[in-house]
Specification:
Blueprint lengths: L16 H17 L3 H17 L2 H10 L4 H14 L2 H23 L3 H11 L1 H5 L5 H31 L9 H21 L5
C-alpha cells in the first residue's frame, strides 16, 4: 500500500498537522452553511491557487488524485438538472470539489504518523475512562492508506476496460473494484492477526 503524502517538501509540510486539520474543519463548516454559488466558486478558486502555491508538480499530482471525483460531480449535477434545481446542483458540486480537494491537500502535506498523533491526542479523554482507542487509530490509518490504493485500482480497471472495449467504462467496474478491496482487507486482517491483533 502507498500513502497520499507528497514526497517532495513544500511550505505546507512545515505547518503543524493539528492546525491544518482545524482549518479544514472550520472551512468545511463554513462552506456547508452557505449555499451562494459565488461563495462556493470563490472557495474553489482559492483551493486551486493553494495547490498551485505548492508547485506545478504538486498541483498536477493533486488533480490526478481527484479525478475519481468527477463522475460523482456529474451525477449530482445531472440529477439536480432533472429535478429542476440546477443552481442547487452546481452549489453542491462546487462545495464537494472544494472540501474534498482541501482534505486531499491536508493529506498530501502531512505525514501519516503525525495525523495519527493528532487523533490519539483528541481521543485522550476517552482513554482516561479506561476505553481503548487503539482500534480507531489503526482504522483511520488504514482508511488513509487504502484511499490511494483504491484510486489506483480504479484507474487500472478503467484502463483495462478501454483496452478491451470501445465503449466508455460503466458501473460494471464497481464489482471487481469491490472484490479487490475486500481481498486487500482480508490480507490486512490476516497480517494484523499474525502480529497479535489490535489491543
Amino acid at each position: 500500500m502507498i500513502s497520499l503524502t507528497f514526497p517532495s517538501d513544500t511550505w505546507a509540510h512545515h505547518i503543524p498537522v493539528g492546525w491544518k486539520l482545524a482549518c479544514l474543519s472550520g472551512t468545511t463548516l463554513v462552506l456547508f452553511s452557505l449555499d451562494a454559488i459565488p461563495v462556493q466558486a470563490t472557495a474553489l478558486t482559492v483551493t486551486v491557487l493553494l495547490y498551485l502555491s505548492a508547485g506545478p508538480q504538486f498541483a498536477r499530482s493533486g488533480l490526478k488524485t481527484l479525478r475519481i471525483l468527477w463522475p460523482f460531480l456529474v451525477v449530482i449535477f445531472l440529477w439536480h438538472m432533472i429535478d429542476g434545481t440546477p443552481r442547487n446542483g452546481l452549489s453542491i458540486a462546487l462545495r464537494l470539489s472544494s472540501t474534498v480537494a482541501l482534505a486531499n491537500f491536508v493529506t498530501m502535506t502531512s505525514r501519516l504518523s503525525d495525523m495519527i498523533d493528532v487523533v490519539a491526542w483528541l481521543l485522550y479523554p476517552f482513554r482516561r475512562f479506561g476505553l481503548s482507542t487503539r482500534s480507531l487509530e489503526i482504522a483511520i490509518a488504514l482508511v488513509i492508506r487504502f484511499t490511494p490504493l483504491l484510486s489506483l485500482r480504479g484507474a487500472q480497471l478503467i484502463d483495462a476496460w478501454r483496452a478491451r472495449s470501445a465503449r466508455r467504462p460503466s458501473w460494471r467496474i464497481a464489482l471487481p473494484l469491490t472484490v479487490s478491496a475486500l481481498d486487500d482487507a482480508d490480507h490486512v486482517a490476516e497480517a494484523l492477526k499474525a502480529r497479535g491483533g489490535i489491543h
